[in-house]
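Lab notebook: predicted structure, single chain.

Context: the supervisor wants predicted structures on file for every construct in the current expression panel, including those that have not yet been purified. This is the next one on the list. No modifications to the sequence; it matches the entry in the shared construct table.
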Amino acid sequence: MPHPFSSYAQVQHCFWSQNILGSRLMPSFSTRSYAAVMLILWSLFMVLANLAQAADKKPIFIGLDAEFGHKTSTSAQAVQQGMQIAMDEINRAGGVLNGRKLKLLISDNRSIPAIGVDNLKRMAATPDLVGVFGAKFSPVIIEWVPVAQQLELPIFATWSSADEITDHGYFPSYCFRLSLKDTWAASTLLRFALEERQASRVGLLLANLSWGQSNQLAIREEAQHQGISIVGERWFNLGDKSLLALYQDLREAGAEAIILIANETEGSLLVKDVASLPASQRLPIISHWGITGGNFAQLTGSALEQVDLSVIQTYSFIDDPSPAAKRVLAALK
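Prediction complete. Output recorded below exactly as produced.
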């Protein structure tokens, strides 16, 4: 659109001419001239209105409630970085909804479901909030589900993988998954055990959480489809000091590989326990991705080099030459 004031000459199309009935000068408008003038004036009004609106546009809020206060987890910070990079790109491109910018709201649930629910309710009261993202811990997001449905607030599971986050009886659903779920993980973990480690007999080591229960059900069902025997299931609690006795139970039961459902703290305990054994007693460990959401490498130290550990992932920046990957990595520097 041309600058509104460049149309001043067109306004002069409202011209003066001599009235044939006398010597007095009278304004003479043609219908087309009148329409042109009105269009110009309306355009000028709209430009000024848009300028005024742009100066007073409020942001659109997106929430992130995650375990920032957890001692060993870094998943909350990782999700925050990814969200902020994406929002910055959108804002630089002009924002959304005719120029409104996105703004991130953050709260800390410390991985405690009750705190997460309180935070979700508090965020929901924010004007112009369009949704809330979570991070790694499935128990928090599972407790969000009925609250989000009641509030009609979209929630997004970025890392938490328990099936019941999206597999529930609510319709329409306000719960969205952005990546892996446990049923899909079970298929991949067991197929890897069979094809890559030639293990047709596996033992399960599971966190005593709703996330562990979700995996137990998914792995049991998938093992039947793949013809894999589960020789035993052992549960550990958060805060346990060693998993060695549980591991040895499964090994002695005939496990040829261990399927591990754990986060970084307990996962590092198992790695150090197994590394302390003679090489002949070290079974392959095939892990869900919970161990990657924290300071796992620092917690395991040199023991990590002594075990056969594989971890499921849906994506890696390693060897990804795509423009999007390069752009994100550059933004992290």
